[in-house]
Amino acid sequence: MRILNLYAGIGGNRALWGDEHEITAVENVPHIAEVYRKLWPNDTVVEANAHQYLLDHYKEFDFIWSSPPCQTHSRARYGLGFHGGKVEGVYPDMRLYQEILFLKHHFDGRWVVENVQAYYKPLIHPRPIGRHWYWSNFHISKLKVPSLNLVASTTTSGKRLIRKTTEELQEKLGVDLSPYDVANKRLLLRNCVEPEVGLHIFNCRDNLKQEILL
Fold it and tell me: Whose CB among 53, 71, 78, 137 lies 3.0–4.6 Å from 119's, allowing a Cys bridge?
């Protein structure tokens, strides 16, 4: 099967897909693309604008996964950043919905678009799993996953949630970034889709199509 993995990052979503498929990953940040190459040497890595690459090459693939930039949709940026006075207000990046609509109406294969749970009511109804929203043209069954970023800790005052360390995130995702000279490794790891979620959704691809409210 020919797979297109857009906005690939370091490939958390594809970690459990195996190597029997022909996977093309598109990542426009060179040092992140280089980490992906070393983690998944059997994949073809293209350093390009993923949004344009989709438009130019979608007919070449059987399955497409897209994870467009999520920062402008993020609850954390809006709640803690904007309302906390740390960042300015910005327009939501509508490439997210452009790609959902494009794939829905132009692509004949199976597809999924992933993003964070947003601070607003979604314009197109998604399937929530963990901390993310997913849109697809096949039914994604329910899956409960523990938080990638937070872990429960027991203190004298009771249980509370604390942020996982970089080392804990690496263990959870099954990757080791210590050999790589990349900035903010913890953020790079936090941006990953949990490998078990990526595999679950990938395995759902032959389910009956679901209606997407447009």
Answer: 78
Domains and CATH numbers, the chain: 2-144+193-203 (3.40.50.150)
Give per-residue pLDDT as tens, 2-27.
Answer: 999 999 999 999 999 999 999 999 99
Residue 49 and residue 60: Cα distance in Å, rounded? 17
* Cα–Cα distance measured from residue 78 to residue 120, given in angstroms and rounded to the nearest whole number: 10
pTM (two decimals): 0.87
Integer Cα distance of 112 and 121 in angstroms? 19
Q: What is the rounded CA–CA span in Å between residue 114 and residue 190?
A: 14
- Cα distances from 63 to residues 4, 68, 83, 121, in angstroms, run 6, 16, 39, 27
Q: How many whole angstroms separate alpha carbon 13 and alpha carbon 113?
A: 12
Collapsed DSSP state (helix, strand, coil) of residue 188:
helix
| Amino acid in the structure at residue 1 | M
Instruction: List all residues 6 or more positions away from 171 whose beta carbon is below 8 Å from its beta carbon.
Output: none
